[in-house]
Amino acid sequence: MQKGLVIWFTGLPNAGKTTISKLLEKELKLKGYDVERIDSDEVPRSLTKELSSDWFIRQKQKSTNIIYVAKLLYKHCIIVLISSVGRLRKMRETARNEIDDFVEIYLRCSLNTRLERDQLAKYSRYPSTIHYYEEPNHPEMIIDTDQLSPNDAVQQILDYLSAHGMIAGAKVDEYT
């Protein structure tokens, strides 16, 4: 039976969180792991309580909801992939403190590349808050997503997880 694990992909919008977490989900499922992906852009409103109109409080509430769901899945030996900016370092640290098997992966990316990827115009729609982000102090991994392909990033993550005994050795399938 597999052991639960929570991996939080953090970084500014358009750094590659959704892309890389989807690829990792696919690879882990191909290798027989039970995996669930929680993407903060896709968390249904029915799952979350009413959010505050205050931006900072809303960020905390969104992270609290994600952490709660991740803990439930983790408890049932699921590998949970969180794809969320997680703007407040304190909230990611809360997850780390409440979940024994936790990995924080900081996806770092230049502003120019993030702007090139911004198909939803988030940077122009939310100019007052889009750049607010507290970088992690000690993430398990930092991946520069403007320098690596998504498949290479996923391979680095699989290598890390394998080297630390979190999964069996794994190689990214060439056709992904």
TrEMBL record:
Residues 3-143 form the APS kinase domain. GO terms for molecular function: sulfate adenylyltransferase (ATP) activity. The keyword Transferase applies. The keyword Repeat does not apply. It comes from the Bacteria. Keywords: Transferase. GO terms for cellular component: cytoplasm. Pfam families: APS_kinase. GO terms for biological process: sulfate assimilation via adenylyl sulfate reduction; sulfate assimilation, phosphoadenylyl sulfate reduction by phosphoadenylyl-sulfate reductase (thioredoxin). This is APS kinase domain-containing protein. It comes from Tepidibacillus decaturensis. The lineage of its organism: Bacteria, Bacillati, Bacillota, Bacilli, Bacillales.
